[in-house]
Amino acid sequence: MTQDLPSSKYDRQERLSLWDQHIVEDSVILIAGVGGTGSEVAKNLALLGIGGLILVDVDTIEFSNLNRQMLFKEEDVGKKKVEIATKRIRERFNPDIKIESYSNLLQNLPQRIFHKVDIIAGCVDNFLARQYLNAMAVELKIPFIDSATDGYFGQIQYIKPKDTACLACETPQPPNETRVLTAPCTLVGVPRVREHCAWKALYEFSTIHEREPIDTSAEDIAELTKLANNFAYEYNFGQFDEKQLLQLILFHVPSLITVNAVVSGLQSQEIIKSLFLEKKDIMKERERKILENLLKAHRFRIPSFIIYSALTGTINTFDLVPDPSCLVCGQSNTVVDSIQIVTVDRKSRFGSLLDTIREEHNKDYVGFRGNLIIPDDGIIQKFLSDGDRITLSSLADDEEIRLQIKFLN
Amino acid sequence: MSKKDVIWDSTSTGKTPDSGIEKMIKIRFKDPQLPPDQNIREKYININGTVFQAITAARDAFNIPEVVPIALLFKGRRMNPSNNLSSYGIEQNAILMIVPDQIKGG
Predict the structure, then answer these.
(1) Distance (Å, whole) CA B71 – CA A165
(2) What is the residue-level pLDDT of chain A in tens, covering all 409 positions?
């Protein structure tokens, strides 16, 4: 009887022409965001037999996640998403998969993590994280497949740095709730608009409690509102009520499991296709020839933009053209070029680096890693790793300097 | 509604405050979410106007409510709402594709 069993768990997909399971098993995908879409993508890739996953998500599991994020159970509420996701993927879908997990903000992820990645899968829930991933993908020339959903709609964008449009091409306007975000130093400086008071309050809350507020906690929301209103009073802005603050700070996009499933399925498929394309030269000869013939006949392509509407049941694809003047991927490369590499002694204090910059620019700066302030008197290696990116923000005029830290040997 | 509605102000003096001289051209908006025989509508728009004005015309052509964020693509380029239409080299009968905008959940 056992002789009749297929030799591989992946037998059915290995029967497909073009499919090269070795390519799948030798690849590592970074999934940014393990929520509605990200947990589905992780499940799909694990079942397809991907070699490694790097999961990044700073969030903890909320009760309202449970109707669509199938990696999580009720008993997991309050626990870190990436930890539970790692455990469940190994238990239920693929015990052989290598998984690294980081419960960090993307902006705090050391650059060396990106170096081992074949493709970045963007499954994040906000504009700023998406733009950060985009800049990293363009800078490191890693293919980036981003997905986004909003209620009945979803989209997937394929970014092949320098070949296709990136997320910053034509600088699409940030959504309303992120427009109020300014330079990080606004969080510690003087608010210029009323909304800054709310962001300062969020920052203050996170500093006091070393966690984000929970939107279902009446105590947290009351405290957050009080903090925001203290700032609003101090700087002569109107007061907030709790509902306004919730909408402003803890904006949650409507979400449907069916849309998440369709979008994550499309995204996972494009990830596999992109792997085959990127690793064409090391594919088995037969599969490579099939791929080359399909490419020649225009029967294999990765559209740069896919849109799904659950209301009309339509999936439309477009090829987006890069904007030559794009600040991220265009000829000027303003954003990528603006990152300076500084070599530092890991045992020195951060203040000594700041002093050099302050002297050079004749301004006072505060150092940020993500949204965390780096203390002046802190020993560098305690707060930063080799390859980390930091932002220095001028207290006088919000001017920002972006640095990449390189440790002296 | 007629397919060839003209979007301009009949009391116009021929100039708009932000874009100078009005020069109306016929363009075609395409909404790929609709069936192929219904997904193109023609409008006259001011080529010296902004992309934002074209988005308003697209909404009007397809009765898309304000609460649904949309963007326009021209020859595969996402159009920045603040830019002038003329900066994209749009000519008579150009097709501007309507796509959803500000989709950002995950």
Answers:
(1) 15
(2) 555 666 889 999 999 999 999 999 999 999 999 999 999 999 999 999 999 999 999 888 988 889 899 999 999 999 999 999 999 999 999 999 999 999 988 877 888 889 899 999 999 987 778 888 998 999 899 999 999 998 899 999 999 998 999 998 876 555 544 444 444 555 666 777 777 788 788 888 878 887 778 777 889 889 999 999 999 999 888 898 887 777 667 666 778 999 999 999 999 999 999 999 999 999 999 999 999 999 999 999 999 999 999 999 999 999 998 888 787 887 666 666 567 888 999 999 999 999 988 888 888 888 877 656 788 888 998 888 777 778 787 877 767 787 888 888 7
Residue ranges per structural domain of chain B: 18-100
* List of chain B residues whose C-beta atoms are within 8 Å of the C-beta of residue A37: 106
Do the beta carbons of residue A35 and residue A297 sit within 8 Å?
no
Cα separation, A291 vs A285, whole angstroms: 10
Torsion of CA A280, A261, A135, A400, to 10 degrees: -170
Q: Tell me, what DSSP letter sits at residue B76?
A: T
Predicted TM-score (pTM) of the model is 0.77
What would the DSSP string read from start to end of B47-60?
A: TTSBHHHHHHHHHH
Contact B33 A314 (CB under 8 A): yes
**Residue A137 and residue A120 in contact, taking contact as beta carbons nearer than 8 Å:** yes
Answer whether B76 sits within 8 Å of A130, measured CB to CB. Answer: no
Q: Identify the structural domains of chain A with CATH numbers, from first to last.
A: 2-170+253-318 (3.40.50.720), 182-249 (1.10.10.520), 338-407 (3.10.290.20)
A323 CB neighbours in chain B (<8 A) are 77-78
Question: What does the alpha-carbon distance between residue A238 and residue A224 come to, in Å, rounded to a whole number?
Answer: 15
| In chain B, beta strands by DSSP E | 15-16, 20-21, 24-30, 40-46, 70-74, 77-78, 95-100
Chain B interface test: which of A127, A153, A163, A328 (most B C-beta within 10 Å): A153
Contacts of B65 in chain A (CB under 8 A): none
Residue A127 · residue B104 · CB < 8 Å:
yes
Tell the CATH topology of B18-100: Ubiquitin-like (UB roll) (3.10.20)
- Supply the DSSP symbol for B39: S
Give ∠ CA B71-A263-A283 in degrees, rounded to 5: 110
Q: B78: which strand partners?
A: B73
* Distant-in-sequence, close-in-space partners of A177: CB < 8 Å, separation ≥ 6: A247, A248, A251
